[in-house]
Design brief:
Blueprint (H helix, E strand, L loop, with lengths): L1 E8 L3 H12 L4 E5 L5 H6 L1 H19 L1 H4 L10 H25 L3 E11 L2 E6 L4 E11 L3 E3 L12 E2 L1 H6 L6 E5 L3 H12 L3 E6 L10 H13 L3 E4 L2 E7 L4 E7 L2 E7 L1 E4 L3 E3 L32 E3 L10 H16 L13 E3 L4 E6 L2 H6 L4 E7 L4 H6 L5 E7 L5 E8 L6 H9 L4 H6 L9 H10 L7
Parallel strand pairs: 1-2, 1-5, 2-3, 5-16, 7-14, 8-9, 8-14, 9-10
Antiparallel strand pairs: 3-4, 4-5, 6-15, 11-12, 12-13, 17-18, 18-21, 19-20, 20-21
Helix pairs in contact: 1-9, 3-5, 3-7
Length: 465
Amino acid sequence: MSEYDVIVIGAGPAGYVCAIRLAQLGLKAAIIDKQWLGGVCLNVGCIPSKALLRNAEIATILRQGGREFGFSFDNLSLDYPAAVKRSRQVSARLTKGVGFLMKKHNIDVHMGTARLAARDTVSLTDDQGILLQLKAKNIVIATGASVAVPPGWNVDGDKIVTYLEAITQEKLPNSAIVIGAGAIGVEFATIWNSYGAAVTVVEMLPRLVPLEDEEVSAELARAFARRKISALPGHRVEALEATENGVRVKVASEAGEKTLEAEQALVAIGFKPNSRGLGLEEIEVKLSERGMVEVDERMATSVPGIWAIGDVTGKLMLAHAGSAQGVVCAENIAGVETVTLDYEMMPRATYCQPQIASFGLTEAQAIERGHAIKVGRFPFQANGKALGLGESGGWVKIITDAKHGEILGAHLIGPEVTELLPELTLAQAMELTPAEIARNVHAHPTLGEALMEAAHAVEGQAIHI
């Protein structure tokens, strides 16, 4: 039996970051994963999808932007399999990097299936079927989440797929129905549309990216319409089946029912926590009705010595949120100074075209909570860098409390807006106001000037509109 100070089960962005921070704090740590270092994010999620989206951006410029930029092609050929292969190379490089970090910090890596045999013991079955016993005073659950698929929907990995098959397949569907207009749905709609596929996005809720500000949803709908991506918000899927030539999807709305057909369907409606089969129930770790591992602000569960971080907690299913939880968890285990996370104010990023970035309250939420608000907006069509890039759609929107000037939220849609979030989230965390953002001199010409102008606009003082 091997003994450690801490065992981390799950090597995704939550788990491996937690293990590194534990090692930095002088604790002997081990990490277990049944499949791969880096988890879903590095292997089949956020990293390879961003590589594909970069290819999609270039493909869009080549296919649609030639007239504006002054070039043309007689026989343009786009190699989608090459884009997928590049995405796999990017993923493999970062996964190897995680392995290097484990060695650098003397973290023992065990590959296999883990189960809690007791509050301080993990049973590990490795790839050869050999059973090992690992013991630790603290055990961290970081097992992530997996795709939620409704009963009766037969995901066959060919005609009906989830993100897992979609991100690794080298076949480009000629036509696709994307079920779900959250981040994964709109990102794959962007990728496949950029390569010429006919894409229809079906969303049960009344608008695309339904968790974002309503104005963001409206702007994305307009952008998708320009790209000839068909969007059907407010449509519920009644039936999904594979056919001889592809898929058939029956949808219903207030206007009635319709049947859609395509070569492939992508199911992207949400995730469920990977909390079952770990032995948590046997040691009485409290789970929510949906199977989320319940934790307090320290990342501690209901059982002393058992902790949980990342998607399995259901707090905010984003890689950077999991990593932040991992750091806080490690620091609490080590008994050093740490912070309390505010999930509402964490950044959210969606990498469709145009990109979406946000944090905090939407305008509607701020009003519902009784805030008297001021809103500053600035359009990218008045930003010199955006015009130079040929991507002048979208805007920056900052929502503030009218009385005290505190930032309640911000919502951005447009070119590379995911890169603009840190200035705003840092300002909110440090209790800066838009007046102070506005007085911070921004380099010209940059997309970041739109933040400065939106901050000025809160008081009606934007310079360039």
